[in-house]
Amino acid sequence: MGEDLRTDEGLMLAYRDGDAAAFEALYARHRTRLYRYLAHQCGDARLAEELYQDIWLRVINARADYEVSAKFSTWLYRIAHHRLIDHYRRHAREKLREWETEDESIEDYPAPASATPPAEVERLQLQDRIASALAELPAAQREAFLMAEEGGMTLEEIANATGTGRETVKSRLRYALGKLRHSLKDLL
Amino acid sequence: MTEHDDTPRDAALTRRYREAGNESCDQAGMAPPPALDAHILAAARAAVQSSATENRSQHARPRAWWQRLSLPIGVMATTLLAVMLSLTVQRHTPETLEHERAAAKVQPAPATERAVEASAAPAVAPAAVPGARNDSAQRPAEKKAVQQPVAPAAPAAFPAPAASGVPGAAPSQTPAPATAAPAITPAPAASSETATVSRLKAESTNEARAGSMADRAQEPEARALQQKAAPAAAAPAPLGAAHGEAVPTASAWLEEIRELKRQGRDEAAARRLAEFRKAYPGYALPEDLK
């Protein structure tokens, strides 16, 4: 697939107007990032696939009414955010509670690899360390971190996508970074 | 991300995260499976195709007959309505209405005419009919007068207006106009009727004119009614309506004078002519009456 120089928004507008190739270019840009975001958020590959497909189908179905009101990535991750919330509402009450109550104690987070049981330290590789560190974050903080890393979004864009205030997002992101640094300090 | 962005970042953490992410993508399946990609892309293409097909079918599908005919029918109905309206308005111009009114007034006249001729009597004044009367009110009086042509003492059909203009004066029995008291105008209503009859003879072809003249004849009568209601305030009437009398139109009056002349009643004709001159001082008399 050749590199398309159009912006995400331009590609989506072209797709709205019937250009199927524009969607392919757009999809290629965001597929891995969105999938990683979902995989980290829900911690279940099968569920991540299901949500991933559903999110893209929503994008496809919304094409007729698409207007550029924000960055495409903001719009896409907003859909993903709502889809995750919906899922947790239906299936995992405790997960949803986790979204709503943030545990701010840094001591509750995974200790450096040196402090974990030896059997587990051996088993984990780099990606597993990061994945587990992310998994231990409160959902809202993890989401803020993933949106910033995977979506390349600013504070405003994350706030827009998650329906929260800019300062809240900033605080969440700070906490997330602090906790991850604490968890992965032997790797940094 | 941007220079002005104050998003908290940790460069080392980001680097390690991306390394781990790429690794995990490659090794731990942190990317959507190809089948899922294919399914989503197929759905995207199908959506575009279906909307294109839908658009095409919308353009290609023939519209229902009523949808196709709605515009021409609407235009036709509007045009028809406009034409009918303009015809109706044209038909009811003031001239046409006057025409119709005149025709309605003239219609019963032949019977009256016949009756007048049959009576072979001179112009009879049944009584001075109070001021404003319309033609329909005049007609019964006319008939009565025609039925009792030679009964000078017959009671008047309507109370005659008093010579002094006082309302409610005793009803007068007005015989023939020639001997009528000077205070009372000699039967203008009857004269008017006679004039109408004569006019029918003379102007039977000019209905519109007759209608307008009839209208004009009513004006002094209406004025007379007003004066009757307020006699003290009665203004000097150049047309002889000062005393609440109905004055015939000039042409009717002249016709009456001609009729008198034809009957050989020159004296009465002269008197009527003098009265006419008084009532219409500026009127140019026709040659035959000079």
Kindly describe this structure.
The complex is a heterodimer of chains A (188) and B (290). By secondary structure, chain A is mainly alpha-helical. Helix content of chain A is 70%, strand content 0%. Chain A has two domains: 101 residues, RNA polymerase sigma factor, region 2, helix turn helix motif (Rna Polymerase Sigma Factor, Chain: A), CATH 1.10.1740.10; 86 residues, Winged helix-like DNA-binding domain superfamily/Winged helix DNA-binding domain (Arc Repressor Mutant, subunit A), CATH 1.10.10. The radius of gyration of chain A is 18 Å and the shape is globular. The termini of chain A are far apart. About 10% of the residues of chain A have low confidence. Chain B is an all-alpha fold and 290 residues long. Helix content of chain B is 60%, strand content 0%. Chain B is built from ten helices and no strands. In chain B, helix 5 packs parallel to helix 6. Chain B starts with 10 loop residues before the first helix and ends in an 11-residue tail after the last helix. The chains are: A mainly alpha (188), B mainly alpha (290).
Q: Termini separation of chain B (Å)?
A: 119 Å
Strand fraction of chain A equals: under 5%
Poorly predicted spans of chain A: 104-115, 117-123
Global Rg of chain A: 18 Å
Mean pLDDT of chain A: 83
Query: How many strand segments of chain B?
Result: 0
Question: Mind sketching the topology for me?
Answer:
The complex is a heterodimer of chains A (188) and B (290).
Chain A: H1 8-16, H2 20-42, H3 45-61, H4 72-91, H5 93-100, H6 118-123, H7 126-136, H8 139-150, H9 155-162, H10 166-183
Chain B: H1 11-27, H2 34-60, H3 65-91, H4 94-106, H5 109-119, H6 135-147, H7 188-203, H8 207-229, H9 250-262, H10 266-279
Helix pairs in contact in B: 4-8, 5-6, 5-7, 7-9, 9-10
